[in-house]
Amino acid sequence: MAPLGGAPRLVLLFSGKRKSGKDFVTEALQSRLGADVCAVLRLSGPLKKQYAQEHGLDFQRLLDASTYKEPFRRDMIRWGEEKRQADPGFFCRKIVEGVSQPVWLVSDTRRVSDIQWFREAYGAVMQTVRVVATEQSRQQRGWVFTPGVDDAESECGLDNVGAFDWVIENHGDEQHLEEQLEHLIEFVRSRL
Q1: Are 12 and 106 within 8 A, CB to CB?
Q2: Using CA atoms, how far apart are residues 129 and 48, in angstroms rounded to an integer?
Q3: Which of 28, 75, 87, 97 is most buried, taking the most CB atoms under 10 A from its CB?
Q4: Burial of 11 by CB count in 10 Å (0-12 exposed, 13-18 middle, 19+ buried)?
Q5: Model pLDDT, residue 70
Q6: Beta bridge partners of 127
Q7: What is the pTM (predicted TM-score) of this model?
């Protein structure tokens, strides 16, 4: 059952490993399409907000790319998993409340249950986008393997999902990335 709010023309669910460039890609798309047409939605937003409130942490600092969140990441993952086990659509419903733009970019899809919820709620207007980057590229962006994080469902839950509707290669070749973004933007505009 779709929640209240505007019915989207297109919902793109972005997934990928830490430091693959999911946020970079979704922000680049939004800047080209315009914030009036395209909303970037983050499943981690309501999770981090609730976690910050319950643990007396700085919500804004949990959202940024700084190292502030790293000491809390493992516990935040565990806490989020408990919430999802009780209600798999909890965070999905939170992020779509009141969104009126026709294009939704969910920048941090991490679980099969996220895809299932959006597929049930929005059906044919939903597509999946996998952002991939080599380990070397991810390391250049600051990624270091962290046990309990990089081998957890939050990072590996979609590794064996099968085919994605789109795959964006973000290995550091700006021209190749630009060509892929242009193809995706053409597709988005065809849905408006």
Answers
A1: yes
A2: 23
A3: 28
A4: buried
A5: 84
A6: 12
A7: 0.87
